[in-house]
Amino acid sequence: MTKTEIGSLVVRIFLGLSFFIHGVTKFQNGIGNTAGWFESLGMPGFGAYIVAIIELVGGLLLVVGFGTRYIAALFILIMLGAIVKVKLAAGFMGNGQGAGYELDLAFAVMAVFLVLNSNTTLSLDSKLFSKNHN
């Protein structure tokens, strides 16, 4: 296993766990509350359910390395949406009233890396689909 494959594994597991935890939190705090918050931002409330399910299920799939490229692409879209709709006005580091978009951007960059380097040795993708599509 190369250093790049180990790095990909670490990024994939970290990003997957991070999104999984964010998805769990949305349900634990009441998905209806999250839907209401989405509506207060001018977005449809059902979007909260879609985002939470993608974070929850996608996070787990990313940890095991199944559908990595597709899940990472969805995470990029979620992070870009969060940056534009919620965090951009606060700036990169935040404005004292709310967090900035630095973490969202870091997650998006990690996801871009996984889109470009998705089939690593220790993933279900590499075990199930032996043909390498990198």
How many domain units?
Answer: 1
Task: Please tally the β strands and state the result.
Answer: 0
Helix- and strand-based class? mainly alpha
pLDDT averaged residue by residue: 92
Radius of gyration, rounded? 16 Å
Strand content: under 5%
How is the main sheet built?
none
Low confidence ranges: none
Amount of helix: over 70%
Task: Provide the succession of SSEs.
Answer: HHHHHH
Q: How many helices does DSSP assign?
A: 6
The best one-word shape is globular
Distance between the termini: 16 Å
Topology of helices and strands:
Layout lengths: L2 H26 L2 H10 L5 H19 L3 H20 L14 H15 L7 H5 L6
Helix pairs in contact: 1-3, 1-5, 2-3, 3-4, 4-5
What's this, in brief?
The protein has 6 helices and no strands. By secondary structure, the protein is mainly α.
